[in-house]
Amino acid sequence: MEQETKVSQTNEKKSFDFKKFISKMGPLVALIILVILVTALSPGFIQPSNLLNLLRQVSINAVIAFGMTFVILTGGIDLSVGSILALTGAVTASMLVSGMSAGLALLVGLLMGGILGFLNGVLIAYGKAAPFIATLATMTIFRGATYVFTNGNPITGTKMNNSFLFQFMGRGYLLGIPVPIFIMAIVYLILYLLLHKTTFGRKTYALGGNEQAAYIAGVKTKIVTMWIYTISGLMAALAGIILTSRLSSAQPDAGTSYEMDAIAAVVLGGTSLAGGKGRIFGTLIGALIIGTLNNGMNLLGISSFYQQIVKGIVILIAVLIDRRSSND
Amino acid sequence: MKIEMKNITKAFGTNKVLEGVNFTVQSGEVHALMGENGAGKSTLMNILTGLYGDDGGEILVDGQTTHFSGPLDAERHGISFIHQEMNNFLEMSVVDNMFLNKEIKNKFGLMNENKMREQAKFYLSKLGAKIDVDKPIGSLSVGRQQMIEIAKSLMTNAKIIIMDEPTAALTENEIAQLFEIVRGLKKQGVGFIYISHRMEEIFEIADKVTVMRDGISINEYQTKDVSMKQLVKDMVGREIGDFYPDRNPKFGKVSLEVQHLSEDGVFQDVSFKVQEGEILAFSGLMGAGRTEIMRSIFGIDPHNEGKILIDGQEVHIHSPQEAIKHQIGFLTENRKDEGLILNDSLTDNIVLPSINGFVKHGLVDDKAINEFTNMLLKRLSVKAQSADVTASSLSGGNQQKVVLAKWVGSGSRVLILDEPTRGVDVGAKREIYDLMNELTDRHVAIIMISSDLPEVLGMSDKIAVVYEGKITGIVDTKSATQESVMTLATGGVKDGTRN
């Protein structure tokens, strides 16, 4: 038995570099090919204004997906992000409308996202609920709460639209670049450091690789799990603020199925749903692939009905390639 | 039936794993196949059963050149392979497991459950086993599952049965039962290829023994004509001298003391001490509660009574991180499930318990970590290409050293080793023993749980024997014998059916 494993190891060595390349750089290569393809079909794509537009479109999904990366690295999933986005967006908007200062309203909105995520974490770490089921339930609860809170109507108002800080988050420009892109970049940087350069990141990987072994090695697995879902909730709330600001209103059905786009970005980026393997850089690329697909197909005038089919197929292909390269 | 494998050669890529191997087995004999991990035993068996093609040589069955297209084909021709990992569907019943993929159907294409149940009972009774075939197979002991596996082989009318490490997870009693069955079937003309690491077993059950090393068959002996020493020499390729290194312990003060530790229904009134520089072995049957006691000391599982003292001070440990803070390390019995993160690098595995000590300006100090892990890999002489390879790519012995490195690195002063040499080959075993000696020379106190009696007697200073959750005796190793320990381990009577 040992012989076989040893042999297959040495056997793989030749093709090993290729596989490592695929798993590390595959998503990037796919993105570059996609960009070239779209540019060839529609030269307007590569215009700076369109690229900035694309990045701004991507930013909301990317921010959610960055948080989702941590969750998926532990082998979990967070289906509630779209609902957290809607609920925190609505609460933030209503605070602004009632005249609260923007800074405080944003802070409360973010805090609330964190708390909702923390709740998921408690259910999963201490309630021992399966992440899929726990967040499926909270997804429904938070969505329902949003409808109750908003009475099913969008929240908007002049006070909200007059707040500079709030407007700035989703609609502002800095040096000619939309602010959401900066937010995405800053979040990426912070979470990149957190994942790859702190002990918390190491523990995240360890937890996803083998929870029992991590626990015995002294990792406070429950606490790490709770923090990770808290981060995910926080990111969803941040995305909610950007979206509400962009639209100048909080929609009760905002963020519906955003969890799917975020999961798709993470998976396209090469992170394994089984946990323990993956990088946040991949998620960024994954989000860009989805963004490029959306943007490119819009430019090409492809009907949104077909767009969904294409997106689904791209995800399938990515997963199949990933299976191949990680298969042993 | 007679199977002759002649001059078998096999390479994976450029890596030659078998070179001119000869092996013969026939009905009515037990032929043991020995060798370290990686010697090529499993590959040879996989070639025999057609899972792999060979690159040279021939296989004769009753004088006819034969080639099986795969395990199923081999099975149809009366060769059955019982793997070490049984791959049962634990929630499914015994009968469903036995007939998986071989279901008996009635004329409507539906399963004929009565007939399957009858047959299952028939073959199990042939082995003298009384097993409720409707029970989920996972509720049975490993020993019973092994019997079911043999019954399955008989169902396919096997003439030759290959057993890969069948006793690895069996209790003494179950081993005795297994051997009884093997002897019985032998009389009925069944031949066995018996792969095992355990010397004692070879001499007890095998008629012939073939030793493999590095892809060659070194020697074939009649078991009665060969000594254990010779077999070890053939396996390792050199004289190992004494299998267990000498221990010259210098005891310091008491490191860990446990007083009246109890957990309802698991273990009761456990008290013992271990000194700096001492190896205290925990002996007993599987399931006696040894692992559970250690898990409780390490804070994984609770206990409802008793005290734990470290350096004479009472401590309260509720979680592994608290145990690590008190400088306890725990090499668990199942390194793949609890000891290692197989897909992570050696570095990530080793540094995990000490990771909080490697923070500089809030960030992880990778340079210091690399120095730290490389130092440990070197000190424990782990054979690996680099610290960046995944733990899964190492052999069992080296994986075990990585787990040890983890706990040495975290500064353990009390080290609990649960079956430290299980699944480790002979050469690496000796290295682990040497390491244990080195650690006790540095005043580490070691608690070693082991089911391997010679190992317990060879490597410990004191032996605590556990029976049904209680310590039945703590004896000085110098005055202990296999028999005296076994008597304590079975509660004084010869009845060790617990599992």
TrEMBL record, chain A:
It is found in: Cell membrane. Pfam families: BPD_transp_2 (PF02653). GO terms for molecular function: transmembrane transporter activity. It is a multi-pass membrane protein. It comes from Companilactobacillus suantsaicola. CDD domains: TM_PBP1_transp_AraH_like (cd06579). One of its GO terms (cellular component) is plasma membrane. Its main location: membrane. Keywords: Cell membrane, Membrane, Transmembrane, Transmembrane helix. This is Ribose ABC transporter permease. The chain crosses the membrane at residues 21-46, 58-91, 103-126, 132-152, 173-195, 226-244, 265-293.
Automatic annotation (TrEMBL), chain B:
It is found in: Cell membrane. It is a peripheral membrane protein. InterPro entries: AAA+_ATPase, ABC_carbohydrate_import_ATPase, ABC_transporter-like_ATP-bd, ABC_transporter-like_CS, P-loop_NTPase. Its main location: membrane. One of its GO terms (cellular component) is plasma membrane. Pfam families: ABC_tran. Keywords: ATP-binding, Cell membrane, Membrane, Nucleotide-binding, Repeat, Sugar transport, Translocase, Transport. One of its GO terms (molecular function) is ATP binding. It comes from the Bacteria. The keyword Cell membrane applies. Residues 3-239, 249-493 form the ABC transporter domain. PANTHER family: CARBOHYDRATE TRANSPORT ATP-BINDING PROTEIN MG119-RELATED (PTHR43790), D-ALLOSE IMPORT ATP-BINDING PROTEIN ALSA-RELATED (PTHR43790:SF3). This is Sugar ABC transporter ATP-binding protein.
